[in-house]
Write a structure and sequence with these properties.
The complex is a heterodimer of chains A (383) and B (413).
Chain A lengths: L1 H23 L16 H17 L2 H13 L3 H15 L3 H13 L3 H13 L7 H13 L3 H9 L5 H13 L3 H12 L4 H18 L9 H4 L7 H10 L9 H11 L3 H7 L3 H13 L2 H5 L15 E2 L5 H10 L15 H16 L18 E2 L8
Antiparallel strand pairs in A: 1-2
Chain B lengths: L1 H25 L21 E4 L10 E7 L2 E6 L4 E8 L2 E8 L5 E7 L8 E6 L11 E7 L2 E9 L2 E7 L8 E6 L6 E9 L2 E9 L3 E3 L2 E2 L8 E8 L1 E11 L2 E10 L6 E7 L8 E6 L15 E9 L2 E9 L3 E7 L8 E6 L12 E7 L3 E8 L5 E7 L8 E6 L13 E4 L2
Antiparallel strand pairs in B: 1-29, 2-3, 3-4, 4-5, 6-7, 7-8, 8-9, 10-11, 11-12, 12-13, 14-16, 15-16, 16-17, 17-18, 19-20, 20-21, 21-22, 23-24, 24-25, 25-26, 27-28, 28-29
Classes of the chains: A mainly alpha (383), B mainly beta (413).
């Protein structure tokens, strides 16, 4: 009897221990803490916030958000670890598969990436996704398999980058007429980026065959500027006789302008730590630091933390400069690289940085680049 | 009592059923992935590291280092200057050759007017970041005076001097990298410092234009690598009288190849000029992981402007390349630097030597794993001890921001 009771007690103890082990981890993000120390604490903050949400809710969406933070931070191996677990838990959710394919692709594991892209292509929700199909074509090119690449690109009718890729292949095959067919297919919906690529395509045609493929009017001479403020680009775009916008461009410009955040929206972002953290990730992973210094005190570009401004000291004006650049300066527009919500997050982060910066009575920071522009005190709400 | 036995048995079954997942849960997390073996190589021990100068505040943005005799010439984007370093009394002494530039990418030292004094011609990108703005310049520094030779160019990545028309003075070849649009042209010097522009090859991404007599006919030809999407190497054959015939000598269908440079040298010692084609640019992929196709190709001159392509190194982030006899055995070896080795592997090589052995084979040896983000390198006897030294420069545009050194150098004891 006593022996049985002892056995019973032992079994119960084992069960309790197992229960503790099994319940102490909520649905995991990654077990091992990614080491962000070499870069910045901001990465860790964004990651910790996403992971806390994932642990609290355990939902696939929140766990996927953890992977997306890691992807955005370029921590592809950690992202892949999270995504592998998600795949085993959530099966063939196309969003997870796509994120996993992107991680594998970025890691250079292109054969595996191609396999997962194919799964995405066949999965619900992203059926026949043109971006996926285009990437499959590019991966085939990476492997030197031009025949398979052509199959993917040809199957992607209406997708500008695929037509352009085919046009390039045709030129290298000596088939100018075929190249022109591909170009004609996209000229009904000229895209700014594609128009820039047409300039490059013309150059390729001239290198290989001695003359341009399409008439771009004055575009090349005027300088088709892929990072120009969109109004200037539009004007130059419409000057080109061969690429006149056939409706749609005006709408896109209007959408672009409407999507840029206003002062109120940006100031409300200062109360949103998640927006600030997302902006911090963009600051770290983008090209800002190279010009404005690691902490924003300036370098090649101006000091962003003092009270001197080259433009207008208003939140919306900052967002607009990020989006459209400053003509005549080295500051390029990033509207083609960042979504409007990312421009908002980055602006909010800069505002947060600005409000945490001590400045002396003259509006200067201790250290950093000397003031440039005019003194304009931007008084922001305290944290 | 039987009920107690039954309870124990049931609990035991439950415990067994749970022990497996619990055991798995207790196991430590597997490491994300083993380090990329492809980024590590057997070490060539003995190289002594040093620095030309303190790195200073901020992130280094060195675009180019070159060794001219015993002098190291540096294009520094952060300081917007071309700098010179000379070894004297056991330390390097810095002097400024040109300042107040926008974004100097390449410096060309040559006596353009034949007056016995060295002139400096600078390829000024105007802006480090991709765009098609007319911000590039070719700048001449002559006796300390500055003159903009050509303005309103798209971003200029390289300028080289040579007598292209055989009239006894030096002309210039300019690589206009641009972004979507660019090209290569030459500037014919028709009188001292008076130039006429002649366009040669349209296309964005011209990053290096090394001059040499590639076809062995006694005049200078122009080699070009186009590194923007179309990954191509061209020779512009000098037919005399200012006529150049373009010939595509190598191309890779991989749009992500990431061509990063082109170096001319007689690698195989057969008397003709070969080319080293490096690939390792990762910036347009927006992630910083090296790709398996990164490395260095030898384009071996077969005569008649035919070049045979051979991959001589797989090296993540391969960017800088230089040629010299490192081991003193009389043949040419190669040094490669990486602008982005595996960010998760602190022991991944950032500098390697390709040591040439019998049969024109190259063996890769790791010289250093730090500092990182080395975009440019050069070989030369900078400390005057009669042995070749290595110099490199770093460009820090993306994480990881660790192991930062602007201008490292290595010497053998």
């Amino acid at each position: 009897m006593r022996l049985r009771l002892v056995v019973l007690a032992l079994v119960v103890a084992v069960l309790v221990a197992e229960a503790v082990v099994l319940t102490r981890d909520a649905p995991e993000a990654v077990r091992s803490e990614p080491d962000f120390s070499a870069e910045s604490a901001d990465f860790a903050a964004a990651f910790a916030q996403a992971r806390t949400r994932a642990e609290a809710s355990g939902t696939i969406d929140d766990r996927l958000a953890v992977a997306e933070v890691l992807l955005a931070a370029g921590r592809l191996r950690e992202a892949l670890a999270v995504l592998d677990r998600l795949v085993s838990d959530a099966g063939d959710d196309p969003r997870i598969l796509l994120a996993r394919a992107l991680a594998l692709d970025g890691l250079g594991r292109i054969d595996e990436a191609a396999q997962v892209y194919r799964q995405v292509q066949g999965g619900a929700g992203l059926l026949f996704d043109p971006l996926v199909r285009h990437r499959l074509g590019e991966i085939a090119l990476i492997g030197g398999d031009v025949v398979s690449a052509e199959v993917f690109f040809r199957a992607n009718r209406g997708h500008g980058p695929s037509h352009l890729r085919l046009a390039r292949l045709r030129l290298h095959q000596g088939d100018r007429a075929g190249a022109l067919d591909e170009v004609e297919a996209i000229r009904v919906d000229p895209d700014l980026g594609q128009a820039a690529e047409l300039v490059a395509l013309n150059d390729l045609a001239r290198r290989l065959g001695g003359k341009a493929l399409v008439d771009l009017g004055d575009l090349p001479r005027a300088g088709l500027l892929s990072y120009q403020p969109i109004d200037i680009l539009r004007a130059r775009f419409e000057e080109g006789s061969g690429l006149r916008a056939q409706g749609g461009l005006d709408e896109r410009i209007a959408t672009h302008k409407a999507d840029l955040p206003g002062d109120a929206d940006l100031l409300s972002g200062l109360a949103d730590p998640a927006a600030i953290a997302r902006g911090a990730v963009l600051w770290e992973t983008g090209s800002c630091r190279a010009c404005h210094g690691g902490e924003g005190f300036g370098g090649l570009g101006p000091n962003l933390r003092d009270a001197f401004w080259l433009g207008e000291a208003r939140p919306a004006a900052i967002a607009r400069i990020i989006a459209e650049g400053r003509p005549g300066s080295a500051m390029a527009g990033h509207a083609s690289l960042l979504r409007p919500d990312q421009i908002r997050d980055l602006t909010v982060y800069l505002l947060d940085l600005h409000r945490h910066t001590p400045r002396d009575a003259d509006g200067r920071t201790a250290g950093g680049q000397p003031p440039a522009g005019t003194r304009q005190d931007l008084i922001l709400p305290s944290p | 009592m039987r009920r107690l036995d039954l309870l124990i048995a049931i609990l035991l079954l439950v415990a067994v059923a749970l022990v497996v997942p619990a055991w798995r849960r207790l196991q430590p997390e597997a490491p994300p992935e083993p380090a990329m073996a492809v980024g590590r190589f057997p070490v060539w021990a003995g190289w002594i590291p040093g620095r030309l100068a303190p790195t200073g505040e901020g992130l280094p943005l060195i675009a180019q280092v070159q060794v001219v005799a015993n002098e190291v010439v540096v294009c520094d984007l952060r300081r917007r200057s071309v700098l010179s370093y000379r070894w004297q009394d056991g330390v390097f002494h810095e002097s400024i050759l040109a300042a107040d530039l926008h974004a100097p990418a390449h410096a060309c030292l040559a006596d353009l007017d034949g007056d016995g004094r060295r002139d400096l011609v600078v390829a000024d990108l105007g802006d480090l970041f991709p765009n098609d703005e007319p911000v590039g310049q070719v700048v001449l520094i002559r006796d300390g005076e500055r003159q903009v030779l050509v303005d309103h160019l798209r971003r200029v990545a390289d300028v080289q001097a040579g007598d292209l028309d055989g009239d006894g003075d030096l002309d210039l070849v300019v690589a206009e990298f641009g972004h979507w649009h660019g090209g290569v042209f030459w500037l014919e010097q028709i009188a001292p410092f008076v130039f006429v522009r002649h366009d040669l090859l349209p296309g964005a991404g011209a990053i290096d234009v090394p001059l040499a007599d590639y076809d062995g006919d006694g005049d200078l030809d122009i080699a070009v690598v186009l590194a923007q999407d179309e990954e191509e190497v061209w020779i512009l054959e000098n037919r005399g009288g200012g006529v150049f015939a373009p010939r595509l000598i190598a191309r890779d269908p991989n749009p992500d190849l990431g061509s990063s440079g082109l170096v001319a040298a007689d690698l195989d010692g057969d008397g003709d000029i070969d080319l080293l084609w490096t690939a390792g640019d990762n910036l347009e992929r927006s992630v910083r992981y090296p790709q398996p196709w990164h490395g260095c190709f030898l384009l071996e001159n077969q005569g008649g402007l035919r070049f045979e392509r051979d991959r001589i190194a797989t090296f993540p982030g391969c960017y800088g390349a230089a040629v010299g006899d490192l081991d003193g055995d009389g043949d040419a070896d190669v040094v490669l630097t990486s602008m982005g080795a595996d960010p998760d592997d602190v022991e991944a090589a950032s500098v390697v030597a390709l040591v040439q052995e019998a049969g024109r084979s190259f063996v890769t040896r790791q010289i250093a794993a730090t500092p990182i983000h080395l975009i440019t390198c050069a070989i030369g006897d900078v400390d005057g001890d009669g042995r070749p030294d290595l110099v490199a420069g770093s460009l820090h545009l993306h994480p990881p921001f660790r192991d930062i050194e602007a201008l490292p150098w290595w010497r053998l004891p």
